[in-house]
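Q: Given only this backbone (170 positions), what sequence would you predict?
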């Protein structure tokens, strides 16, 4: 909303037909607690929405659900990522972003189809995957919380990227 977007909020259980009925320009997959494998309905719904080629941006649990919908696996971290000041490198720019995080699971980069999915961000503390982007579809996500502004604005460009992606596909 702060970027001038009209925002509609749906529960995680909303069916793809409900979402597509409002003819959205994009879908934002928000954060949430827990094991992403515990929400198989959300994974299946996201998979169907990917097939609809709807622009998507996921954060935290949304990133993990998106990864699972794209065929990846997730695993529980030995030590979860909690709090601010988590350094993440943007592989495209080489810049380090200071991020805020609160998660205990991560997407396994070795389980991704790298012909279709690009790993975009990695945690500099433990080298876990922090971001991905589909090479051909308008879909990307990050594990951390760009809206939390710990850097204080290191990751806000992601919202601009999402808006640009929606504009390109509308």
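A: Predicted residues:
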């Amino acid at each position: 909303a702060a970027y001038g977007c009209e925002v509609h909020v749906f529960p995680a259980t909303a069916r793809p037909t409900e979402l597509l009925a409002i003819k959205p320009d994009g879908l934002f997959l928000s954060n949430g607690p827990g094991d992403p494998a515990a929400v198989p309905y959300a994974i299946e719904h996201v998979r169907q929405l990917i097939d609809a080629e709807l622009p998507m941006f996921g954060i935290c649990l949304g990133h993990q659900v998106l990864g699972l919908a794209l065929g990846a696996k997730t695993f529980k971290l030995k030590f979860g990522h909690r709090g601010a000041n988590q350094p993440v490198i943007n592989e495209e720019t080489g810049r380090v972003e200071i991020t805020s995080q609160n998660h205990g699971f991560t997407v396994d980069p070795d389980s991704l189809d790298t012909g279709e999915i690009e790993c975009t961000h990695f945690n500099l503390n433990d080298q876990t995957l922090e971001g991905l982007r589909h090479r051909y579809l308008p879909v990307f996500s990050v594990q951390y919380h760009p809206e939390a502004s710990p850097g204080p604005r290191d990751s806000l460009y992601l919202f601009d990227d999402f808006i640009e992606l929606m504009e390109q596909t509308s």
